[in-house]
Specification:
- By secondary structure, the protein is an alpha/beta fold.
- The protein has one domain (6-245): Aldolase class I (TIM Barrel), CATH 3.20.20.70.
- It is built from 10 helices and 12 strands.
- It has an 8-stranded parallel β-barrel, surrounded by 7 helices. Strands 2-3 form a two-stranded antiparallel sheet.
- A hairpin with a 2-residue loop joins β2 and β3 (25-31).
- α1 runs parallel beside α2.
- It is globular, with a radius of gyration of 17 Å.
- The two termini are 21 Å apart.
- 48% of the residues are buried.
C-alpha cells in the first residue's frame, strides 16, 4: 500500500511574526505563527515547517519561544530550522518542541553536521533543505536564502546528504519560489530518482493542479507551500478533496 502524500504549510518567521516575499525580497507581514499553526492543524495539514529566516544569534531565544507556542497548538509533526549550525542549536529546537530539524547552509559548509544530527536524533528527524537553481543545464545548490551558489551539483549533494544520515529532503526550486506558476516537476523528479528518502517539493505552488502535477509527474512524497495558505488562496481541506477525487492518496481531514 502506498503512503499518503503530505500537504505541509511553511511558516517563515522573523522570530516573532510570519513573513513572506519572493526569493526573500520584499518581505511582508503574513500573520501570527501561533494562530496560523492552530488553523492549519484544524484544516488537516499533515505536518508544519517553521523557519527562522533571520537566523541570528540574538533572535534565537525569540524563535525558540515561537516554537514552544506553535508546538502547543499542534497534533501533527513540527519541523523547525533556520540558523541551526551545531548539535547544541538542534537540541535547543527539539527541547522547544520540534519533532524534526532542518539544516541548509550550515550543512553545505560542514557536511559532518548531518551525521552528527542523525546520530543524536535518528535519520527520521533530520531534514536536509536544498535550494536548487538551474544554471547552464544543471541544478546548482544555492545558499544564504538562495542568493549565492555553493558550486555543488544538487543531485550529488542530495545523495551525499542521505549517505550522511538525512532522512528527508526539503527541495526548493529557487527559480519557482514565490512565482505561483507551479512546482518544478523536472527538478523534483530528478532528485526523487536520485535518493531513497522522501522528497518534499517547495516553490511555485498556487493551483490544485500544481499539487496534482508534483505528485504524479514530480514523484514528490510531500508538497510545501506558504503564501497561498496564509492568504486563503487555497484551503488545505479543499485541496485534499481535489487530490482525492483524482485518485491521489492523501489523508482527508475529519
Amino acid at each position: 500500500m502506498s503512503l499518503a502524500h503530505r500537504i505541509i504549510p511553511c511558516l517563515d518567521t522573523d522570530g516573532k511574526r510570519v513573513v513572506k516575499g519572493v526569493n526573500f525580497v520584499g518581505l511582508r507581514d503574513a500573520g501570527d505563527p501561533v494562530a496560523l499553526a492552530a488553523r492549519y492543524n484544524a484544516e488537516g495539514a499533515d505536518e508544519l515547517v517553521v523557519l527562522d529566516i533571520a537566523a541570528s544569534r540574538d533572535r534565537s531565544p525569540t524563535f525558540l519561544e515561537t516554537i514552544r507556542r506553535v508546538a502547543a497548538e499542534l497534533a501533527i509533526p513540527l519541523t523547525a530550522g533556520g540558523g541551526i549550525r551545531s548539535l547544541d542549536d538542534a537540541r535547543s529546537v527539539v527541547r522547544a518542541g520540534a519533532d524534526k530539524v532542518t539544516v541548509n547552509t550550515a550543512a553545505v559548509a560542514r557536511p559532518e553536521l548531518i551525521a552528527e544530527l542523525s546520530r543524536e536524533f535518528g535519520a527520521q528527524a533530520v531534514v536536509l533543505a536544498i535550494d536548487a537553481k538551474r544554471v547552464n543545464g544543471r541544478w546548482e545548490v544555492m545558499v544564504r536564502g538562495g542568493r549565492d551558489s555553493a558550486n555543488r551539483d544538487a543531485l550529488a549533494w542530495a545523495q551525499q546528504g542521505v549517505e550522511l544520515g538525512a532522512g528527508e529532503i526539503l527541495l526548493t526550486s529557487v527559480d519557482r519560489d514565490g512565482t505561483q506558476i507551479g512546482f518544478d516537476t523536472l527538478l523534483t523528479a530528478a532528485i526523487s530518482r536520485a535518493v531513497s528518502v522522501p522528497v518534499i517539493a517547495s516553490g511555485g505552488a498556487k493551483l490544485p493542479e500544481h499539487f496534482a502535477e508534483i505528485f504524479s509527474e514530480g514523484a514528490a512524497d510531500a508538497a510545501l507551500a506558504a503564501s497561498i495558505f496564509h492568504d486563503n488562496v487555497q484551503s488545505i481541506r479543499d485541496l485534499k478533496q481535489y487530490l482525492a477525487a483524482r485518485n491521489i492518496e492523501v489523508r482527508l481531514p475529519c
